[in-house]
Amino acid sequence: MDLQALFEKYLTLSYRYLSIRNRSETEIREYLGKKNAAQEIIDKIVTSLKEKKFLNDEEFARSFVLNRARLKPKGKKLLTLELRQKGIAEELIKKVLDEVRGEIPDELSQAKSLIVKKMQKMVGMPKQEIYQKVGGFLARRGYSWDVVKKAIDFYL
């Protein structure tokens, strides 16, 4: 295959991959790498996707954070880790988290809403056990101990 045909093939694969959900630049690069695309073709495709506004790490990070807050709330620590794993730069993560702060509930509100059902099931249990179970649940979701304690204390 000539270079143009390979470019078209991998560009089509990229469009299909992007049709599922938004992706970061790193995700596209890794995907095309797994498909055995040459580095020069990957670079050319990434440039093309950016020019056509199909690829924008800032928009990706913003929509990722907003979707997480709406569908599967997680703490700031875990959000930062997930975005880092998707190849988003540290400065961009901080910028996006600061920008969307007003659009999503604060961590304490999220934590309280996550544990409503759990706390109802634990009525009458010793405080120590509640802190272990509910605290572990919230910690796995990326909430700091300070937020965990305040959320649990709200219901006790």
Explain what you see.
By secondary structure, the chain is mainly alpha-helical. It has three domains: 3-51, Arc Repressor Mutant, subunit A (Orthogonal Bundle), CATH 1.10.10; 57-99, Arc Repressor Mutant, subunit A (Orthogonal Bundle), CATH 1.10.10; 107-155. Helices cover 74% and strands 0% of the residues. It contains nine helices and no strands. The protein has helices at residues 3-20, 25-34, 39-51, 57-71, 76-85, 90-99, 107-121, 127-140, 145-155. It is elongated and about 70 Å long. The mean pLDDT is 92.
Task: Compose a concise summary of this entry.
The protein folds into 3 domains: 3-51, Arc Repressor Mutant, subunit A, CATH 1.10.10; 57-99, Arc Repressor Mutant, subunit A (Orthogonal Bundle); 107-155.
Descriptive labels:
Arc Repressor Mutant, subunit A; elongated; mainly alpha; 9 helices; 156 residues; 3 domains; single chain
Helicity level, as a percent range? Answer: over 70%
Largest sheet: none
**Beta-strand content:** under 5%
Q: How many runs of DSSP E, i.e. beta strands?
A: 0
CATH-derived architecture of the largest domain? Orthogonal Bundle
**What series of H and E elements makes up the topology?**
HHHHHHHHH
Low-pLDDT segments, ≥5 res: none
What is the domain tally? 3
CATH class of the largest domain: Mainly Alpha
Number of helices: 9
> In the CATH scheme, what's the topology name of the largest domain?
Arc Repressor Mutant, subunit A
Distance between the termini: 68 Å
What structural class do you assign from the helix and strand content?
A: mainly alpha
The radius of gyration computed from the alpha-carbon positions, rounded to a whole number of angstroms, is: 21 Å
Shape summary: elongated
